[in-house]
């Protein structure tokens, strides 16, 4: 019994050391942002490690990715620091033009990104970002805005063209309820802005299941990537907009990032 108790305490101690929960109070957000950080078991053996941000989908929170893929297991297997921010349910990871306290992009680049680099042993040449659905949109948007900060980026089942679902997912509230014809929709979408990566040599990856309601938009994104000769890898495969698909696709993305 005593040996079992010691074993349990050791395991608890390991988990405490391997996973950190950070809470950020920011003037750029309407409420606190909780961030889960998973460190590989080999963390203490390295001077610097690769890091990946995983952004969750609409309606999710910082726990979503871990419930899909066991983030600690992935951190241990790939030797990555995994950072899972909270996108506050429906932030779309953007700076709202009508809500001054809803500036998620500014929070990410000016606060979270810098603080994570300061707190952890991060190899700045190997910082990656990916996400699912709303988070896929956020990851590629951040990569378009600041490709200098990431080695690569990814998206799975990404909502990459906001105009075509303008009345859903809280988007109108964030953007001030513009008409479906308003050019603002293109200003905040991935597909109309992907050309800004022309001339950028860094590779990126995105995928979508053939039964996903975002499938056609991801196919359109692939066409744009081909048009501008971007270093994009697109995976079209069977699957829908669900956990079963994401648990498969995230493995493919980690393998892609590891190879780069």
Description:
The chain has a single domain, classed as Alpha/Beta hydrolase fold, catalytic domain (Rossmann fold). A hairpin with an 8-residue loop joins strand 1 (19-24) and strand 2. The protein has helices at 2-18, 64-69, 71-78, 104-119, 134-145, 171-175, 184-187, 215-227, 243-259; strands spanning 19-24, 33-38, 49-55, 81-84, 122-131, 152-156, 204-209, 232-237. With 260 residues, it is an alpha/beta fold. Helices cover 38% and strands 19% of the residues. The model is unreliable at 1-16 (pLDDT under 50). The radius of gyration is 18 Å and the shape is globular. The chain has 9 helices and 8 strands. Strands 1-2-4-3-5-6-7-8 form an 8-stranded mixed sheet, sandwiched between helices.
Question: What is the structure about, briefly put?
Answer:
The protein has about 260 residues and is of the alpha/beta class. The chain has 9 helices and 8 strands.
